[in-house]
Amino acid sequence: MQTRKLYYEDSHLKTFRAQVLSCQPEKDSFVVTLDATAFYPEGGGQPYDTGTLGGVKVLQVHTRGEDVVHTCDGPLEPGSRVSGQIDWDRRFDLMQNHSGEHIVSGILHRRYGVNNTGFHMGAARTVIDFDGVIPSEALPDIEQEANHAVWQNIPLHIWCPSPEELPAVPYRSKKALPWPVRIVEIPGFDTCACCGTHVTATGEIGLIKLYSSVPFRGGSRI
Questions:
Q1: What pLDDT does 174 receive?
Q2: What contacts 24+ positions apart, CB below 8 Å, involve 52-58?
Q3: Closest C-alpha to 190, from 220, 169, 213, 214
Q4: pTM above 0.70, yes or no
């Protein structure tokens, strides 16, 4: 049974209830599957959510096939209904960083034709890698444009185009993707294939600050 992905239906959902489908011991923890979850699994450069599920701690979240699996520090009874609570401060910080990264990557793609080849969201800052040279002296101007997108409080448009619509959508992607493809658009700044969670409007992102651009593997790391 495919897990219903509540984090796509409402990225601001902090609590939810779901049925436990399975619970298996694995090393020093327990792997739990649910019929629905608001816990985002690691993927697309975004770390997994943490929080609590039925009174036990959720340590990690990953996908296995069509299932979202929760690594917990205690067991849950299969068939029971449990309450889940997301560590919202962590999730919202990740959403802010991820949406901010899209703005910066979209600007750089338009200005320099570079592609985002990877990024990492840490506790203190986000690191983004590009396949071309980004001059350090251009960062203040790029930063100003990125924050202009924030100040406009632009609503994000997130959808899955039909197989007929997809070829006409000019989205960024590191590789060709099979349908279905989830598109995250920040009108006027970026359109990108993405599986992550995002803010509702750009004003939620807050300040975007670019610290440095350094050479990295033939391209640049910001």
A1: 65
A2: 52/84, 52/85, 53/82, 53/83, 53/84, 53/85, 54/20, 54/80, 54/82, 54/83, 54/84, 55/82, 56/30, 58/84
A3: 169
A4: yes
